[in-house]
Every structure is written in C-alpha cells, then in structure tokens.
Amino acid sequence: MRDFIIRSKKICALLLALVMAFGLVFVTPKTQVKAATKYWIKVNKQANVATVYQLKSGKYKPVKAFLVSCGGSNTPAGTFYTPAKYRWHTLDGPSYGQYCTRIHGGILFHSVWYYSHSKASQSTVEFNKLGTTASHGCVRLSVIDAKWIYDHCALGTKVTIYSSKNPGPLGKPKGIKVSTARKMYWDPTDPDKNNPYNKLKPSIAISKKKKKTVQYGEKYSIKSGVTAKQKNKVSLTSKIKYSVKKYSSKQKKYVKAKFSTKSLGTYKITYKVTSKGGTTVSKDFKVKVVDTRAPIITAKNRTLTIGKTVPTNAVSGVTAKQRSGASRTGAMSIYIKTPGASKYTKFSSYSKAKAYQFKKAGNYYIKYKVTNKYKTSVYAEKTIKVVVKYANATLNIKNPTVFYDQGSVLPTVDEIKQDAGITAYDYDGKTSLYGKVTISDLELLSDKMNIPGSYEVTVCVTGLNKVKISKKIRIDIKKSEPVTEQPTTTEQTETTTAAE
Question: What does each C-alpha distance from 333 to 349, 415, 465 come to in angstroms?
Fold first, then answer.
C-alpha cells in the first residue's frame, strides 16, 4: 500500500510537471466572439516587424509598429490568441526575458534575453540584432515594446504571424544601437528609473522650420516641431512641458503670460523635459505675434437720392482697421471720380472727404487706400460705385374736386390749377415746378360743359430726374339754376300810381 501511494504521488507529480510544461498546448481555443479584442497584433516574420491594430468603430486600424526579431521557420505562421503572461520567464540556455506574453506553445513575445535574472545583464550583441532574424522561434522586442504588449493587451488578444516583403502599413521602425564593448548591459529602452541610460542628460531639439513669427489670429501649435530624447535615443517628446512669458515694454522684461495669437507681442516659450532617471533640461524659443497683413476696408456700393438720403458724404459707412482691431479709418486716402470724369481726384484729407456732398446725379467711383500701421509697405485698396439720383418731384392738390356751372366756358389750365389749389416742387422741395404742371384730358370737357356730371382729368409734372408724377382731380359740372327777373323800384312805383 505504501509503495502504491508513493508510486501514485510520483505519477501525479509527473503529470503536474507535464501539464505545467505543455499545458498551454491544451488551452481551450478562444471563440470568435472573444477574438474581437481591443488589439490585434500582426507579426511579419520576414520583415521582422510587428504592427498593432486597434479596434475602432468596428474596424481594426494600425496604431503602432515594433521592431522585432523572429526565428524564421522556427516561428510558426497562423492566428493565435494569447493565453498567459509572465513578468520574467526562463528561456532557452538558460536565459531570461522580461515582459513575456505567450503566443502559442513555447512561442512568446519577450524582451531581448538576459544572461541572468538581472536588468544589467542583457546581451548587447543580441539587442543590436533587433529587426533581423535572430531568435529560436520567439518574437523578441525591446523592453519598452514588450512592456507595452504586456501592459495593454489582455489575455485572448489575437495574434497573426505571416511573411511578407512589405513591412506593414506603418513601415519598419528605426532601431537603436548600443555599444558591444560590454558583453551585457541594460536595455536602453527600459523605463526603470535606475536604468543608467535614463540618468543621462536628455536633449531638446527645435525644428528650424518652426515659425518664429505668426500673424494675428492664426492658429499656432506651441509643441509642434519640438522633440526630446534621451542619449539612448528613446523619445521623451510626449513628456515635454512648457511655460510662457511675454515681453512687457512697460516693465522692460518678460513676465508670465498666456500665449495667444490674439495678443500682439513677443513671447518666450521655455520647454522642459525630465529623463526617466530624473535629469531635467530646458530650452527657450521666442515667437512674435505680428499684424503685418493688409488692413481690412469695409465699403459697399450704394445708391443715394438727393433730397432724401442722408448722409451724402464720400466716407459714409466706410471703415478701415488692422486685423488686430486698431482703427485705420482716419488714415485712409480717398480718391473720387465724378460723373463724366476720366481721372480720380484725391481729397487732401479725410475730413475733406467727410465734408464732401453729392450735388449732381450720376455714377461716382470712390477709391479707398490705407497702409498697415506696423508695416507701411503693405496696404489695402478698395473701389466702390455710388449711384446718385434726384428725388421725385412732389405734386400736391388741395381741392381734388372743382365745380363749374353748366354752360360755362371751358376753364384754362391756370384756372383749374388755381381752383384746385395745385402746388409742385422739384427734388429739393424748394424749386417750384408750378409753371410746368400740365392737365390732360381737358379737350374732352369742351363738349361737356353743358352736360351736368363728374369728369376726371390728369394733372402731371416732371422733375429734374425726368420722372413724371401724376394725380387725378374731379371736375363737377353743376346744373344751372333758372333766373327770375324782378322789377326795379321805379317800375313798382309807377304801377302803384297808375292804379290810384
């Protein structure tokens, strides 16, 4: 019985060891539903590039590309789903790897191998092989990339391994080379603050193409064109911070301010970055917000009517200003071309243009020109058309109906004008047009003066703008009352005497 128990324990231990060694072969395959994970990693073992795709709006889109070292034919092709992760894991040799994620069987994503379980023991020669076929079948990465997969890709993440000359949609990243004078050392990308690489002084670079001047109101990105990295070439660009100061002419120094292209002046931007090991560097960059574009002139074509429209000067409704808002209206030069003229005449001053009055009908052309306040070689120019018209004449009738007795002689025009109380004035309301008033249809009345009734005639007058104004008046012909003759006083006396 005792031997049986011992044998049973040995068999169980052996089975447990086998399960631990090969248990991953028996992992239940992920379903298609589970396959729709947040990320899908495609490993191109021929090009030695791994591209990470992220599921966005139902589609996988490439977001990252990693430089890797695969194992050629020893790296199996196909689609798999990650079943396990290990912070450190023992590899062939024995050797050791950080941030390991199992792909299938004995194939893992892991860092370039270490001689021992120490971060300072990574093979420098093997690190420099990233981007070439070098592994025994696993997919090697730099520590920073292996850690990203370890941190972000949940178990069950879909992994497809294939071969192609085309590295992938994001191309093949550039690698980092380390000195091989040492057999082993730290991985230069390891974010550990104790990494000697991270304690080296970082550097900030500002592109020569970064604008040093920006026009008022334009978009401007403070961080674009600015990069930072550690001596091991690991990027620190995303870690860059900045502060802003603006030069104060009043205080004669730079003072703390908020950068805005809506505020003219010179800004000093100080960029700072701290290495993963805690070393900080800074770099200054000056940018000037200017307003040197052509000013804006606001002026529209218009129509004026003399006698009605006010004001009627050459600058009414016209403004000029800098893009930054400063008024340039009073600084405008103004030129006018009057009806029939072939050339423009310049006003000697803005006030003269403001006092100008349009006194004659016709088409006028007015040209406005103004220079930039900060750069006089830059100017704006605009020409408008002003159409000037005379107002219509006015025709007033006090008595719209006039009366004449049956059998009367046809009245004259002047008699009707007088009887109807007609007045008429030109566009200015002052110049009388009384003598130009006409009455049509009078000839129709010549045969009707003996016929009682109401008849319409048309009163007309034409002003300087040649627009005819018409109104109707009514002429009433009244039936004449019979006349009874009465005897004179003498006749009555004589009759009375005779009777006596």
Answer: 7, 57, 32
Long-range contacts of 258-264 (CB under 8 A, 24+ apart): 259/220, 259/222, 260/289, 261/214, 261/215, 261/216, 261/217, 261/218, 261/219, 261/220, 261/289, 262/216, 262/217, 262/324, 263/289, 264/216, 264/289, 264/290, 264/291, 264/324
| Token pair for 412 | 């004259």
**Range 85-92 contact pairs with CB under 8 angstroms and sequence separation of 24 or more:** 85/150, 85/155, 87/150, 88/117, 91/138, 92/136
Distance separating alpha carbons of residues 323 and 325, to the nearest angstrom: 5
Pairing relation of β-strands 302-306 and 379-390? Answer: parallel
Catalytic residue among 110, 152, 153, 460: 110
- Statement: residue 13 has pLDDT above 80: no
Clarify whether 152 is annotated catalytic. Answer: no
Q: Is the torsion defined by CA of 17, 18, 22, 24 positive or negative? A: negative
> What is the identity of the amino acid at 312?
T
The amino acid at residue 349 is S
| pLDDT of residue 35 exceeding 80 | no
Query: Which residue in the list 70, 100, 138, 153 is annotated as catalytic?
Result: 138
CB 277 within 8 A of CB 297: no
Largest CA distance in the chain: 197
pLDDT in tens, 189-237: 998 989 998 888 899 999 999 999 999 999 999 999 999 998 777 889 9
- Give the predicted TM-score (pTM) of the model: 0.63
Which is it for the CA torsion 108, 111, 115, 116, positive or negative? negative
Residue 70 annotated to the active site:
no
Single out the residue of 377, 360, 378, 229 nearest to residue 307, CA to CA: 360
